[in-house]
């Protein structure tokens, strides 16, 4: 009635309205489709970057684990030499005693997860289980800081007594450019290298005598061996978690 009184064609008006509404809905759908495609592309980029970070972490952890094992072996060799259970050459004794308390801490890659957290883009990771894995892995790394502080305290106790056991000349020689690499992976026993410095049998005997007579040396070195073993165990578990998280990331990246 209203259309008739006003001289309007109601069928034409409804058709125009339907066309306008359909156009708006199509535009909204197209815009949502475009955003979804952008989100998928961004998710794929984040997954690739996370995989790169986790591969770097596993490599760093692997190196630190090997060095923790080797340095526990060094400390064990020093204690056996002090007990007369094994004989280390004078250079091996110096290297083992100086290096048994060195630590290697992994340099974790957190660039991608920090970006995801700070921008709120963690929501772009569609796999809820993967988001949980990522959260647990990086929380584990954060909790490791407390362990690290405890390890450093034990290390500082050993460092404090080292000047009483080794002459400065020999300590400097061990860390000079001509000295061997920082560690090796192997069984219990002396390090398989010949450092490029000179130490006599008599001087090695004096070092062993100081080691045996020192009121704290054995206790501190035994503690350091345990700490290196503790670091080995903790980092091995974290590396396992990193590998599992990496596989989950790679699996998510392979999905359409």
Supply database-style keywords.
single chain; rod-shaped; 8 helices; 256 residues
Describe the protein in words.
The structure is a single chain. Helices cover 75% and strands 0% of the residues. By secondary structure, the protein is mainly α. The chain has one domain (41-254). α3 crosses α7. The longest helix is centred in the first third of the chain and has 74 residues, at 10-83. The protein is rod-shaped, with a radius of gyration of 32 Å. Mean pLDDT is 82; it is low at 177-195.
Structural class label: mainly alpha
Number of domains: 1
What pattern of helices and strands is seen along the backbone?
A: HHHHHHHH
Nearest-angstrom radius of gyration? Answer: 32 Å
Strand content is under 5%
Average the pLDDT over all residues and give the rounded result: 82
Give unreliable regions as ranges: 177-195
User: Main β-sheet, in a few words?
Assistant: none
Number of helices: 8
Which overall shape is indicated by the principal axes computed on the Cα atoms? rod-shaped
Would you count the extended β strands for me?
Answer: 0
Oligomeric nature of the chains: single chain
Q: How far do the termini sit from each other?
A: 55 Å
Q: Report helical residue fraction.
A: over 70%
List the helices and strands and how they pair.
Layout: H1 2-5, H2 10-83, H3 90-99, H4 111-119, H5 128-165, H6 168-174, H7 201-213, H8 217-254
Helix pairs in contact: 2-3, 2-4, 2-8, 3-7, 5-8
